Amino acid sequence: MDQNRQGARASYIALSIFVALWILVPSAVRRFNREAFVEFQAPALHLVGKSRDMATFWEKKSRSVEEMTAAGRDLARINAALEIKINALEDIRRENVRLREITRYNVPAEYMSVVARVATRDSSSWWQRIVIRKGRNDGIRPGAPVVFGNTVVGRVTAVHLTTSEVDLVTSPGFRCTAYLEGDDQNHIVLVNGVASNSLGTAKARVSVIPRDYSMPAGQPARVFTTGMGGVFPSRLVIGYLDGGTYATQVGSFKESLLIPSRDLYNLQEVSVLVPLHQNPGEALMQGDQFQ
Amino acid sequence: MGWAWLILLLATYPWLLGADLASDTLASSSLVFFISGTCLIAPCRRLKRWQAILFAACLGFLFEARRPIPDGALALSLVAASIFLSSNRQLLRNTPGMLWAAAIVNMGACLIWFVASLYVSPASSGDLIGHLLVQLLLAGVVGSVALVPIALTQNATLDRLSIPPAPDTP
Amino acid sequence: MKESSDTRVLPSTPVERLRLYGVFFFFFAGFVYVIGGLAFRQLIQSSDLKEQSDTQSRRVVLRPPARGRIYDRNGFPLVDNRARWSVKADLASLQKEFRGEYLRLVAAEKAREAVSIDREKLMEDARVRVLQGWLNKVWFVIDETNRNTTKGRKSPAKLTPVTAPAERQINIDELRKHLRERRALPFTLVNDLAFPGTGQALTADDGTKSVARFIEQFPVEGPIRLEQDIVRTYPYGAMAAHVLGYVKDTDALPDNVDDISEVRVESLQKLHYTGKTGAAGIELSYNYVLSGRSGWELWSKTSSGYNQTRLKFSEPAQGGNVMLSIDYRIQQAAESSLAKLKDPQGNLLPAAAVMIDVHTGEMLALASQPSFDPNRLADRVSSKYYDEIDKAGGWLNRATQGLYAPGSTFKVITATAGMRKKVVDWDDVLECGAFFKVGNRDYPEHEPVGFGDVNLDKMLAVSCNVWNYQVGLRTGIEALAAESRRFGLDAPLLQTVSDVETGGQAMTELPFAASRGLVVPDREYKLRIGAGAWNDGDTANLSIGQGYLLTTPLHMACVAASIARGETRTVPSIIHSVERNGRHQGSQPIGLNPNQLEALRGGMVRCVEEGTARVARIPGLPYAGKTGTAEYFKKGEKAHLAWMIGYAPAENPVVAFAVLVEGQVDTNTWGGKTAGPVVKEMLETWWPIAAKANQDEKPKAAR
Fold this sequence. Notes:
Oligomer: heterotrimer
Largest interface: A-B, 46 and 49 residues
Largest sheet of chain B: none
Mean pLDDT of chain A: 81
Structural class of chain B: mainly alpha
Helix content of chain B: 55-70%
């Protein structure tokens, strides 16, 4: 018994020494440790994602031929419609280029789009991140915006070899500028994740709304990206403004909650828009990540 | 057997992953199925102390790896718990003891995780206490409920590795 | 307790059990402590604050409110507030970095084997270096020119060139002052992200880009915070700057904070953010209305004096709005036409233009040139800009504060005085030669050959001097001076702000309007200033608006408005109010018979149609005018003031106006020729607006 006790005491002492060392050790060591454990889990995460895909596949496979034919027919129609749209867009694009040349408008950041499947959602006490199955190997860099269709999903916060973590719009580390639908003067407002509404759906906060802003009647006001900050392309939907009840006055501005678009909770696939040129923010991010 | 702890960890990992995936269903309520503490109970009865410590550390780091909390906060707390448990194995002698231990250790670890993530990014407002209490309650309940299947898996693994059973196995 | 280590037994002795319970208790206590602490802070403490008498550990921080808006008469905002984004460093959370840098500096100093180490100095250096590092990062992110240079592996900290402009460097004096006075508040790194430093946007899109870049690219966590507040903005820039005024920093926030005991406790330390107070114009005279209510925050503080937790707060409330009588379109027209008046060197001629509503006295335009851009004064004023304005004479509101001899525009008063004293009638014809002899001095006509037979009508059209010399002398100085006073040339005229709106301080609507400087000369005046006894020459001079007489363009516009109404006094106002009934305090009927009044007005109309103001004729809009060219001395040399007053339209007058231009020594300045085009442009802008307003009015009346 005594020996056991002494062993325990020795272990406690060793632990305290280790804790002290752990605090003093350079942060690179801690970061390496974290990385290692992430990479250890990466295959499992891929496996989860893959098996999910497999489940979907079998679910699809079990559909009847009739159903599939119907779906195929619908798709063909949609394709035809989109084809026409693409042509129209091409015209608009050319016009756009021409106008930009005339006004010498500087060209917005260019992106390389990387499509990634979602592996899992990392639930953390009051916000969530998602893990996607693309990583450094696929050219993903931290800070890159993540979108789904024309909806903003979030931003890449950490990149590992074959997986990356994405902070959702509702996570506290997320911050971007936005325009509100129905604001003709295009005041920029601030969107950042709060997710502090414990036990409820995570939300984001829209602040610095001009006092005289009023929502367009009859529909929830959409919140768009501005495309000014050099991170997000413009006119992507971040979410919807929560109705007047939450619009409170804070100082000289109004504040409201943002309801992220519903897709955010059952994402299967996202696109990461990796900027072709590194922006300053990215350089800063690489300087120090997590303390 | 020296690598018993690692093999045990691999055997336990599916449970951890499963809990993560199950947490997905709770996403809208910001709650998480937390079982890291529970996974510690059975190994602490049978593994050598140093093995239990390694097991606990890895368990903690695995959880921390993808979550924004200060490095090592949870892992080192679990190590402390494992030292305590492996030096007081008499507490884990019977089923009620194990259940209690699972609930308490799991809740304690959950609390530490919660406070640690609060430290990294303070939640500005809201019903924080309520959230914490519900999360702790959930951790306690899930911790003791999940103990049985997890412990069964872990014991089966240890049996395969021919680690001697703990005395007074319930 | 001698047992082998292999066998585990239950703790059987009291000591063992105790130890075990001790461990349990320890865990339990920790648990309770955390939960209890959180619960206490959230649930109990907030309601318990009032009872706490310990004021040492708490302080009140006062936050300035947003000022109210100022609108023109149609509801266009002339003064607004815009969001200002500033970047601040939280000094409390930088403590660790300061310490680290300090130790590094000390080590370096020791390594150099310095004889004595000035630790104070090193600590300051450390602070500056750390803050400079962060400031570099901020600039690194917001400066768009960085975009192409950062493709490589340049580290941001190395990006500051040695000769960085001032706004990219930490101002040591400011930091010292901040640490001395407001240590608890975050230190400002960039005051206005949209216009960092020089008051100029870095990129197009009025600087929103640099704001957006910071928001989206700068790390969210860390000691650098983004704060938003409100800054005064004048969307039309320098337009109506003299009316609107500007704001300046103040440490005295509106002391009308919410009624709570914490704020009122005397011994509680109070800190305040710098607020704004009106410094001129409406911003000053209506400061009380515009100010709003300060907000406050109750903070607990750390032992080193930094803020720790915000315990309670109340948001500031925005000030009330003020609606001016100005119509920004007419104001703009007035200013743009004034801006065309330049001396040969290309400098703007000092000038003023006023347009008032004949009935209500509300001013539709009040322009003074040169002017200033209140936007550039709303924030930190550079002394350079201040001096620039000062040198150009831009601070003076020439319309209400500039004192000038009214010249020939005064002749309408001479004529009125003469007719009221019955020394001349509307149809009397006087013989007017090339000059008029008063005593032994010849008083000249402005036309070398004279005008021959002149009646009232013709006098006003051609602005005959000799007619006025004669009538002036017949009328006498007493009656002339009395008539001038009847028209209010000796009174400030301008409406005063009611006590309620100033918070008990009497003030005219436009602050510091001329009152003491106004001169209506008479015998007593001349004796008082020690210029000897009054003589007929003085009377002759006065009768054509020269000599000692001094008045402002606003006064002359009021004279024109009064004549248009057939009264003697108009009280002008800059505030739009639907309750104005056209009654003016101290006003009397002008005291002329219909024929006389008709002739007086007819002469003014003729002045525009075919007389000295014909350059300003507007086809289809007959209106009344009177020009004037007064002499004055500019640095000892003779120069001319160009005047034009009048009202429009000729029938059923609606607006009255006055324009004054200060000619320079080397400029060819002449009443109608110089001031006329300004009048023309103002009226041409006003006319369609009035017509449209009339149209809108009619269906309403028909209903």
